[in-house]
Write a structure and sequence with these properties.
Number of helices of chain A: 8
Distance between the termini of chain B: 10 Å
Largest interface: A-B, 19 and 19 residues
Shape of chain A: elongated
Order of helices and strands of chain B: HEEHEEHEEHEHHHHEHHEEEHEHEHEEE
Order of helices and strands of chain A: EHEEHEHEEEHEHEHEEHH
Helix content of chain B: 25-40%
Number of helices of chain B: 13
Helix content of chain A: 25-40%
Structural class of chain B: alpha+beta
CATH superfamily of the largest domain in chain B: Bira Bifunctional Protein, Domain 2
CATH architecture of the largest domain in chain B: 2-Layer Sandwich
Distance between the termini of chain A: 37 Å
Strand order of the largest sheet of chain A: 2-3-1-4-11-5
Oligomer: heterodimer
Largest sheet of chain B: 9 strands, mixed
Strand content of chain A: 25-35%
Largest sheet of chain A: 6 strands, mixed
Strand order of the largest sheet of chain B: 1-5-6-12-11-10-7-9-8
CATH topology of the largest domain in chain B: BirA Bifunctional Protein, domain 2
Shape of chain B: globular
Amino acid sequence: MLNIALPKGRLGEKVLELFEAASYTCPSIHEGGRKLVFENVEAGVRYFWVKPSDVAIYVERGTADLGVAGLDIIKESEPDVYELLDLDCGKCRMAVAAPKDFRDDPALPLRVATKFSRIASAYYAKKGRQIDLIHLNGSIELAPILGLSDVIVDIVETGTTLRENDLVILDTIMPISARLIANKSGYKFKTEETKKLCERLSAVLAGRKNEGKRS
Amino acid sequence: MKKTISLPTPDVAESKLQDLYRQAGYLPYRMSKFEEYDLYARNREFLQSPNIITFTDADGSLRALKPDVTLSIAKNAAGTDGLTKVFYSESVYRPDRSTNMFREITQTGLECIGPVDGYCMAEVLFLAVKSLETLCPECVLDVSFPDLLTKAFKKARVKDEDVPALMKAFCAKSPHTLSAILDGSGVSGKDTEILLKLLAAEGEPKKVLPGIRALYEDEDWTGAVDDYLMILSVLPQKRVCVDFSAAGSLTYYNGIVFRGFLKGIPDCVLSGGRYDLLMERLGQKKLAIGFAVYLDACEALLRRRQDYDLDVLLLYTENDSLKDVFKAVQSLSADGSRVRAAKEADPAIRARTVIKLFGDGRIGTC
């Protein structure tokens, strides 16, 4: 039995669809209600819905053998896990954005508001730019508008929120997509099941890619 | 009756491991709790965490509470000729990853320093497997070869600046990350394919190593793989898994690197490897191999064990003779199982298995 932590929300729904297309179905998960754990003994899977930012914790601690987390969460929390597959969904990018009229003054530390402190720090350390890091937990776009920060480092999907708040993208730090992660010890004792799941998911992803090319 | 698995408590595990190493001819090694801070400052990368508890000693020198044992033993092996084979069980002080506060951890392990040959390597690896088996019968030793990776990187003409990211991709078993790094880096498609094969290689040494040997034809490569095959072939194959995700720091390790896992424990509980490069950094031309077992992981084993208060509850009646009850308890507890004999089950006590005596000395499950 593979224990799989799925991220609650839109990404989780997409990922579940992918797993089901790879024959890892679980009818009870579609029944609604407030249940969080769902099992299909025949398919050999037990799914549980968790907060997206907690998926890596469940996997690293071995409560889940596998999980699906965005690359943003993996890079930010650096869990000691295997990253087995790029699931090619939940695509967006980690970007630096600022008000349209922003001008960088290299004589002063750059004030950066973000939920992703580690990613932002690493990015500016690589550039050798001194920053004043402001860690926020949400509504990051508000920070430069109200003068709390000069720029923000955040996830950008369509760019609509940025545009509506008169912010523009200055740089893309990295493309983001959902990844299949695995607990390192759990993998050792469920190698065959995990490999089989990876192969089936890869086949579904390849099929979708080919369909995309044809259409 | 289904055989119960008896897992040792950390103190029992420590004692069993010491017996194992003593039996293999390793000598006990005791050391001070403190070490010069400078030793760790110069070799931070070798440590699991760069954070160290420091203090100023009475003579004004900066000292540290040991965050690691291997460095101290390696440093002190300078004056000895011949082969040094020692084992230790010491407290080390490291920050806990989740709380970021220091905690005392018991680290048990062994080091073999000097003219290390193939036998020494096989012996250390064998003792690593035996150490894991001592803690839990369901275990795996992952074995990797940093020098093969270094050779493969060189053959593929991987740029030096790409090596750390590539090592991360190997550690994460992440083929898509590896491909993304090599895409457009000047490494040929054929070489990328070979590196992807190394990343995907995993399984029993006798099954996997021949495939790795065939990746390159030159003697430097095939000779190195043959040497590893010879060493690993004497180990219990089911317990050993070739897996390049176990690769450690290329600054310190060469030859073989290994990590041990136990079923049900999410973290690696044993790590070790050949560290001639560390010896070189310490100014010593000596070969060295060793490993450490992190007994704090046994706390998790203990948690597993504590799912039950007893391994066996033996139920007897007045028809059973005292002699039969006594004999059955002695027999059932011989493998270390926690056994209680009682006339009736106590609902507050959780027993993994309940068995009963039939009045004629025979036992059976309820």
